[in-house]
Amino acid sequence: MSVKARRISGRLETVVTKVNYAFDPVDDDKIIRNRLLTRTTTTRGEPPLKKLQKKFTSFVLEVDKDEENFNDCGRLAKAFLQELSTFEIPLLKSQAVVEANRREKESFNEVKDETERQIRQAKTDIEDLKKQLEESKIDRQHKEECETIRKLISAQPPRSETEKVIYELNKEIAELEAESTASWRLLELRKKQFALLLHVVMSKTELFY
């Protein structure tokens, strides 16, 4: 089907025409296959194989005659050989094409296999790289944690200073404990003295009464 445009009275109209095919498109594959098998280049020409068969049949029939027909047999034999040669040349060409296609297919299969192998290798390499990347992340995290701890340790005073501070604190504690003991003893002494004084006062008070 084709679409054509025509102008009628200043108007442009579209005309749809139907295209007639010589053969049904569905039968194209069958026709092409038959041409390849029979070596026919046109749809109306006589197949070369049939022509070769006719030449051979004519030659055989002439040979089977009892007459002295050597000239006719030679002529028919020559015609048959010529037709055979004509038929053989496309076969040799087709054979060369088939061989070239076979080699091309083998080369394609080799390229395909190599490509698939490279794809598999690439996938394996990607998985290995993923594992290495994950391990690198873990190592980096550990290094960062170690660096943080190192900075914390570096921020602390030296051990000698820490020991000195501890010594001074222990010394102050000992002095405070000594002062506390002395104060407690003094307090006990004052309590005893006060009790004695209170006892004396009470005794003298009783004498007056």
TrEMBL record:
One of its GO terms (biological process) is mRNA export from nucleus. The lineage of its organism: Eukaryota, Viridiplantae, Streptophyta, Embryophyta, Tracheophyta. This is Uncharacterized protein. It comes from the Eukaryota. GO terms for cellular component: THO complex part of transcription export complex. Residues 98-179 form a coiled coil. It comes from Capsella rubella. Pfam families: THOC7 (PF05615). Transmembrane segments: none annotated. Belongs to the THOC7 family. Keywords: Coiled coil, Nucleus. It is found in: Nucleus.
